[in-house]
Amino acid sequence: MLTLLATGVIGYLLGSIPFGLLLTRLAGYGDIRRIGSGNIGATNVLRTGSKGAAALTLLLDLAKGFAAVVIGKVWGVDAALVAAGCVIIGHAFPLWLGFRGGKGLATALGVVIALAWPVAVAAALVWLATAFWSRYSSLAALVAAAAAAIVAPFVTDGATAAVIAAIALLIILRHHANIRRLIAGTESRISFTKG
Length: 195
Known about the structure:
By secondary structure, the chain is mainly alpha-helical. Helix content is 72%, strand content 0%. The protein contains nine helices and no strands. The chain has helices at 2-15, 19-26, 42-46, 51-73, 77-92, 105-134, 137-155, 158-174, 176-184. α4 crosses α6 and α5 crosses α6 (105-134). The longest helix has 30 residues, at 105-134. The chain is globular.
């Protein structure tokens, strides 16, 4: 039990590092929470016009999800699954930002790469196809999360599939405002050519 608690805390603390916020401040763009959607994730960082900062945010958010699971695996499968859940919770609800964090897609991708890489590949391909077709990052995230939950039971064990499904559900719930804007036709599109 102490091991699971420790991996949970490690996962949460890793997840709560707001790389998007830190990188945009270092790059001189100010507080990312005052730009675009106000989100601290890579998609909103891209709205600063800096592809480099957005790419680095994506990579670091992914890396913290991957690292949490790898650290958890040192103590076994159960610890890895606890770390997987807690790193997503840390990203979405970071203590340092008043529990208002990102939506968790990049961090979830890192988690799923470490838990079941074929699921991650499938979800990433679905995200790319949907994003390039629709130009809506939020729609791509929703479809990719659903795809991961659908694919997981076919390529991994039940416990891992359940954790992936729970993460997918959290990501979908975190996009509630985006879903409303998509329905209303007011959601912002992303550009792959800006900056």
